[in-house]
Hints:
Layout: H1 2-9, H2 22-39, E1 44-46, E2 49-52, E3 57-60, E4 63-65, H3 69-79, H4 88-96, H5 106-117, E5 123-126, E6 130-133
Antiparallel strand pairs: 1-2, 2-3, 3-4, 5-6
Amino acid sequence: MEHRLTGLNSGADDYMTKPFDLRELAARLHALVRRTQGRTNQIITAGPLRLEPATGLAWFENEAVTLSRREVDLLTHLATADGRWVPSDVLNERLYGSGEEVNSNALNVHIHNIRRKLRPEAIETTRGLGYRLGWKLKS
């Protein structure tokens, strides 16, 4: 108990003791992400794309566009990577978690659908590096 109090009083947001359930860890991480998104802009703007991750709403060139929840999550993750390349295994983990079985081409299907709905340059791909958003974020 003393370790928990020391950690929390020293600035930790949360504390878990071993052994812990991975589902609880994932739920706590999702809650942390939700809290941090609440402190920042609710709308992500990158080039002609505006995205509201909390609601899943998106606009491309000021026209509403329908994206699946996973497409929104994928674009949000790429947008928050600040132009850095994101490997496919990181994106798969972000979209599906470690406990869900993923079809080997599922990520490619989501990327294909995003490019079709927006533009081919919406997501850049470089073999060996991964993916990144094709537009710069606007402040």
